[in-house]
Amino acid sequence: MDGNDLGSETTRRGIISQAWMRISQLYQGTLDKWTPHTKGRWFGSFLLLTVFVIRIITKQGWYIVTYALGIYHLNLFIAFLTPKIDPAMDFDADDDNGPALPTRASEEFRPFIRRLPEFKFWLSVTKSTIIAFFCTFVDAFNIPVFWPILVMYFITLFCITMKRQIKHMIKYRYLPFTHSKPKYKTVESTVTVN
């Protein structure tokens, strides 16, 4: 190898890394533009999921891909409902019921922080649905199975998992959904001068 070959390879690497960096910047810019449009993002994801389900129904196959997608979405949903700091792992020996989130106005307000934020939840659901959709074009993933068993197993798994999650929510007294910001009462002080 002489100096010219080394220089041209370095130039090629530089061009590839610059192109990759530019693609990454465009991707991140697009995600940043979509961030405030929550309803539109989720509408697009449900539309994409509907197209995926229609493809599965019309082609009568790829049930393993659908089952794997459902299990993955279930795991994402559980992470979305779970607090970032799990109260089950942070307990006092004196308290039999374990710690609880504040429930009265006199207690400190600590907002519910999710283990999986809404935007990352949406992004993971969308990416996984796109990947599963493209998997339906590969015949290697079309493994023949008796799909009613997968459906019953998924329903059973969903019920057991949600029952455990709801019990956890009741035990540690937290609600993962808030409709609006907390409103603080203002104290109107009247000053009288005598």
TrEMBL record:
This is Protein RER1. GO terms for cellular component: endoplasmic reticulum; Golgi membrane. The chain crosses the membrane at residues 42-58, 64-82, 145-162. The lineage of its organism: Eukaryota, Metazoa, Ecdysozoa, Arthropoda, Hexapoda. Keywords: Membrane, Transmembrane, Transmembrane helix. Involved in the retrieval of endoplasmic reticulum membrane proteins from the early Golgi compartment. One of its GO terms (biological process) is protein retention in ER lumen. InterPro entries: Rer1. It comes from the Eukaryota. It is found in: Membrane. It is a multi-pass membrane protein. Belongs to the RER1 family.
